[in-house]
């Protein structure tokens, strides 16, 4: 059987920040037929004419021509130059075609993965004739597990949501969800399918950004996750620089346990993770882009029993409660490695959290200690309210960089933000090393 895609960004609670648009569409969600039109685009592009594309799709030339015109209206750009002998794609057409082929590839992969479940191979969904609304409803049902909530957040009625699910299950000849007292529970084939649908929706999001960029605009949405230590200076500088030049860009940052973030990158819901890197990440089918280096220090409040001591023994750290991020976070793993090498028990984690406000408050109100990048508490360290303890943490030097899906094709918009982040990070990390 194919491997089950087991994680969703909403499987657990997570913190979500945004500069503009909400994660869910809260207005009435109108149906769009962009995918049906992209199917026509692929046929016309590959056949070189509307007439031949229509023959391939078993549609009339007028219907295919209408699809191309509707796409051109949607994108506000010509996709083809028309000649008597056929059509020639424009830059806009070639850009849309590349994304459309990636979408078609995701549907073909879904068809192959679902074959062992005896899926109906000629289901409309696999032919790119299902609207974006249907895909979004299935993805939201997987995440929210509650049909009325999905209807409310998408501005639809519950019968409309139920009808979409019923139609998908009937045409695929597969049960996608189980109705239980605890809500809508996705089935194994449903999980496999929805993983691919997430990637399709991500490609549609990138397509809008790519075409806007060709029009001379920067518009679209970027969704990413980031290391807490880079949220106080690096990210504000980078996002401000991007938004000052491109005010129509929407930037969203997601915070969740690392395994869920990794799954979000694989599904396309997260464009990239900006984080500390370790060797394991190179073996997860990721594209790794290193932009700098960082290290960890141990911090405590001013007046802490250890704050005035010199050459602190690492064993003394075990006498105090710790505040650390979740298991699997780079800082947590680096710290555990130190105690493992010394054959000591790992620190006693009293609070598992990465929020800056909570960390700052707990350090100042208790004898708890933490290990962080000095950039994370740079202002508190500079003011003297938080002290860096006199202890070396050898082996906690680490590369900082981006994690992307290896076969992803980031939008131009996404690349722009990563460029701004790299410039800001190099400046901040260089000043930190000098200090």
Description:
- With 435 residues, the chain is an alpha+beta fold.
- The protein has 3 domains: 15-196, Winged helix-like DNA-binding domain superfamily/Winged helix DNA-binding domain (Arc Repressor Mutant, subunit A, Orthogonal Bundle), CATH 1.10.10.10; 218-292 and 404-434, D-Maltodextrin-Binding Protein, domain 2; 296-396, Periplasmic binding protein-like II (D-Maltodextrin-Binding Protein, domain 2), CATH 3.40.190.
- The protein contains 14 helices and 15 strands.
- The strands form 5 sheets. Strands 1-7-6-8-15-9 form a 6-stranded mixed β-sheet. A 3-stranded antiparallel β-sheet has the order 13-10-14.
- Strand 11 (322-324), helix 11 and strand 12 form a beta-alpha-beta unit.
- The longest helix is centred in the middle third of the chain and has 27 residues, at 188-214.
- Mean pLDDT is 86; it is low at 1-30.
């Amino acid at each position: 059987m194919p491997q089950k895609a087991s994680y969703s960004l909403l499987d657990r609670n997570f913190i979500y920040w945004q500069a503009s648009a909400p994660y869910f569409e809260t207005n009435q969600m109108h149906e769009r037929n962009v995918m049906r039109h992209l199917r026509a685009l692929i046929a016309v592009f590959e056949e070189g004419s509307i007439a031949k594309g229509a023959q391939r799709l078993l549609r009339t030339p007028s219907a295919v021509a209408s699809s191309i015109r509707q796409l051109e209206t949607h994108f506000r750009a010509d996709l083809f130059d028309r000649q008597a002998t056929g059509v020639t794609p424009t830059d806009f057409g070639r850009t849309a075609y590349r994304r459309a082929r990636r979408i078609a590839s995701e549907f073909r992969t879904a068809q192959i993965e679902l074959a062992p479940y005896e899926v109906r191979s000629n289901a409309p969904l696999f032919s790119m004739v299902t609207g974006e609304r249907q895909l979004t409803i299935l993805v939201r049902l997987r995440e929210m597990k509650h049909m009325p909530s999905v209807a409310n957040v998408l501005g639809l009625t519950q019968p409309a949501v139920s009808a979409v699910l019923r139609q998908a299950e009937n045409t695929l000849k597969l049960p996608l969800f189980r109705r239980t007292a605890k809500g809508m529970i996705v089935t194994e084939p449903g999980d496999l399918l929805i993983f691919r649908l997430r990637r399709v929706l991500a490609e549609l999001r990138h397509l809008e950004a790519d075409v806007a960029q060709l029009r001379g605009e920067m518009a679209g949405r970027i969704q990413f996750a980031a290391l807490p230590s880079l949220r106080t200076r690096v990210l504000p500088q980078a996002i401000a620089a991007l938004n000052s030049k491109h005010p129509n860009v929407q930037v969203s940052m997601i915070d969740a346990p690392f395994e869920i973030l990794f799954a979000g990158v694989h599904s396309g819901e997260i464009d990239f993770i900006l984080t500390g890197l370790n060797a394991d990440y190179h073996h997860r089918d990721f594209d790794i882009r290193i932009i700098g280096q960082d290290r960890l220090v141990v911090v405590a409040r001013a007046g802490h029993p250890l704050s005035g001591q010199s050459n602190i023994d690492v064993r003394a750290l075990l006498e105090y409660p710790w505040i650390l991020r979740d298991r699997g976070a780079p800082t947590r793993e680096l710290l555990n490695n130190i105690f493992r090498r010394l054959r000591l028990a790992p620190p006693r984690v009293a609070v598992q959290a990465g929020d800056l406000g909570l960390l700052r408050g707990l350090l100042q109100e208790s004898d708890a200690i933490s290990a962080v990048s000095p950039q994370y508490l740079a202002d508190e360290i500079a003011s003297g309210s938080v002290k860096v303890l006199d202890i070396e943490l050898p082996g906690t030097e680490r590369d900082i960089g981006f994690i992307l899906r290896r076969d992803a094709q980031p939008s131009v918009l996404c690349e722009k933000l990563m460029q701004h982040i790299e410039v800001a990070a190099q400046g901040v990390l260089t000043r930190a090393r000098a200090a």
